[in-house]
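Worked example 2:
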Amino acid sequence: MSPSSSAQTDPHFERHGRIKCGTIIVPDIEVGISAYRDVLGMALVDRSPVSKCLCNLWGTPVMAGKPSAMLRHVSGAPCFLRLIENELPSDFVPTTTFGWAAFEHTSLGAFDWPKKLEGSAFEIVGPPREIAGLAYFVPMQVFGPGQEMVYLNEVHQDTPTTDLPKANADFDHMFIAVLAAPDREAAVKWYANALQLDEGETHVIEYTMINRAFGQPKGTQSTLTMIQQDRMPIVEIDTYPAAATHRSHRAGTLPPGNAMVTLAVRDFAELDVEWIAEPQPIEGPLYDGRRTGTVVGPAGELLELIELGNAAP
């Protein structure tokens, strides 16, 4: 299926809360494109400097004119990854700061990925493994060329409370954004009240990624809560250890690594948010001329919101 397929108008994707894009900062745009296009198999659909209009909506004037690339999954799912070139702060250590911690994708052949990624810009930090008692998916985690965290999860079945998407390409669309929060309960309330989303289940697990990042003993437990729209998972909100800090970055720029998440929403009038700038219609493969605005979430995360129109589910 080509990226220009009729999946662009698939009503399954045109839903309130759907993840439409993850934005990633990379120090070299050519290396980033090569990694996501040539290694993970995405399609490059646009290359252009970041516009002043978008930078105004994001509150990031320094990013204007930076090289950027928009890539789309070859399954045809209307979901994108956007790469933007910018230097990474010298003190940036992934998965140790508040904000967007990881972008989780559905994929095929989890146990084949280590071989495919050999010699690439991706570093495997969580090899694929089956987890006792969790037959729903096989997880795998990598750092990308901008030290962003990307999950490649091979989905086997839905959970009792969520529908997990099966992949139609080796590396298919993003379906969960992982948020590191200084106050998980406050963040859950914000997503429910400000964005009209649903609070899902809360789990206490041994989270190996968090334990490894903070040097915590094996067996240390972490708490996370899912944010959903009905049975569609959207955001996983994680409680981070006391040693976590706010992500530093130069004023007027996007944060490094996993920088921003774009969600589709039904109607801006339904939201209780404070816009960085007045929403504007934006053209391009991601936006399709729809009104778009950006807000800052409770963990300091940037959320770009695209209005579907109040007829959307």
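The radius of gyration is 18 Å. Residues 29-39 form the longest helix (11 residues).
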